[in-house]
Amino acid sequence: MQWYTLFTLILAVPSSAIVRFHCSQLVTQRLDPLVNPGLIPSSHVHQIVGGNSFNATMDPKKDMPGHSTCTTCQFGDDFSNYWTATLYFRAQNGSYKRVHTIGNNQFETANGGLTIYYMQDAIYTSNQSSKVTAFKPGFRMFIGDISARSLEQAERFRQLTYVCMDTWTQRAPESIHFPNRPCPDGITISQRFPTCWDGVNLDSPDHMSHMAYPETGTFESGGPCPATHPVRTPQVFFEVVWDTKPFNNLTWPVDENNQTVNPFVWSFGDATGYANHADYVFGWKGDALQKIMDTDSYFNSTGSGARLPLQTIEQMNNCTQAPIVTEDIDGWLTSLSGGYQSQYS
């Protein structure tokens, strides 16, 4: 579901709460304090947005608002960090070139990055059926399977999808694999996190087990949370627009049968798209996020209450962080950083 559809729904659902905002790029490098804490460099390249206290360790006790001096997010109180793997184009000769993100609709002048949503279940149903509790300091989570290379392996993460954009408003149906044709206006990736918390653990060894989707498997069903995870949280939803346009007229690779194959590959080698994944570390200041969740009809950073400080896109773009892992990630590369090559199985 894209932003313009959500906007239509919210007009009909006055008791709901949603916020959509953008976060410009903070840094792109091989660091992953959630899956590879303390490892410099981490296994593969990520694009990171949010507070500039991001580092290789991110101790759960860290005061993220207190340690940050700026944030790339539109909400000045949001010092969370959000990140995904980066996307590359593989040419017919086997070399790789990084694909950049662009600002989403209404944020086209942003320095790449991600569009973030926090939503209540009323967005998908006719009324708000549950109390939504904001995350706590030290909370973090992960979604996806980095080793998935088939539909069977990826089916449990059907909330991670791709859309081939013909225009901003004309888009192909969602899929859980890479689009199989050139996309005139780029590829949008949607990453929807679980919405039921066990109410105890701020993290878990796999960074997923402390969270769950509703019993019926989807947030939008309005189904109850399982007894093991009784606390309803906002749905965190990343929307990432990859600017694949510069590669549409280049020669795409072919397989052993001389058939054109998808040329895009994640920074860890997945060329199927099934290993789509995302990371989230909560860092909102005070009770700012709870105020948003308790406010009716809160959309596109405006609403009837919870007036929180907003930044201009220029201020968001000015918050950057120098990479501590120095390597070429932007030239034509013979292999992906970390030594990865494209994998179709």
From TrEMBL:
The keyword Phosphoprotein does not apply. It comes from the Eukaryota. Keywords: Signal. Residues 1-17 form the signal peptide. The keyword GTP-binding does not apply. InterPro entries: DUF1996. This is DUF1996 domain-containing protein. Residues 32-284 form the DUF1996 domain.
